[in-house]
Amino acid sequence: MEYVLVTGAYGGMGSATVDALVKQGYGVIALDNRVGEKRENVYPVQVDLTDEESVKSAFCTVKGITDTLKGIIHFAGIYTLDSFVEITEERLVRAFNINVFGTYRVNKHFLPLLKKDSKIIITTSELAPLDPLPFTGIYAVTKSTLDKYAYSLRMELQLLGIKVVVLRPGAVKTTLLGDSTRELDVFCDNTKLYPVNAGRFKKIVNRVESRNVPAEKVAKKAVKILNKKHLKQVYSMNRNPLLLLLNVLPRKMQTWAIKQVLKTKKSKKPAENGGNND
Question: Is position 26 annotated as part of the catalytic site?
Answer without folding.
Answer: no
